[in-house]
Amino acid sequence: MIREQLTEKILDIKREKGWSWKYITGEIGGMSEVLVVGALLGQMKLVKPLARRAAELFGLSTTEERMLNETPMRGTPMPPTDPLIYRFYELVMINGPAWKALIEEEFGDGIMSAIDFDMQMERMAHEKGDRVKITMSGKFLPYKYYGATQGAQELGYKEE
């Protein structure tokens, strides 16, 4: 079995049982809903206790449980073709340069981590139609200026 087949098996069981992602993530627990769903879709790994809970919930074999605990090959082809996912890509293409400039002005020369990262999603009522609110928080990682000498700073933190 390959990982994509396990993902399809999980989705088939989800459909057959009529389960919501909220129900599934509540049963598995242990970390963010985004991470649990991402793992079940093959983009993240579940730590062993959570892989065990997922395997019990979905009636998976020991091999399939272990597969949920393996580090996956992450990502999708670019640009994405799904309209909802493409809108996130579009947000980055259009707003990315401004986000970069504002982050660098505030923190210095570096990046926002997508590994040391938190994300929450919530529904917000709005008179013109409900809105999706996504809050992201990533650790700032300064670039290392290797070979820095003669008082040059070693990391790209904002210079005061």
What does this structure look like?
This protein is an alpha+beta fold and 160 residues long. The model has no long low-confidence stretch (mean pLDDT 94). It is built from 6 helices and 2 strands, in the order H-H-H-H-H-H-E-E. Helix 4 packs across helix 5. It has helices at 3-17, 21-28, 33-40, 48-58, 62-68, 83-107; strands at residues 110-124, 131-142. A hairpin with a 6-residue loop joins strand 1 and strand 2. The chain has 2 domains: 3-68, 434 Repressor (Amino-terminal Domain) (Orthogonal Bundle), CATH 1.10.260; 83-142, Cyanate Lyase, Chain: A, domain 2.
What attributes characterize this protein structure?
160 residues; alpha+beta; 434 Repressor (Amino-terminal Domain); Cyanate Lyase, Chain: A, domain 2; 2 domains; globular
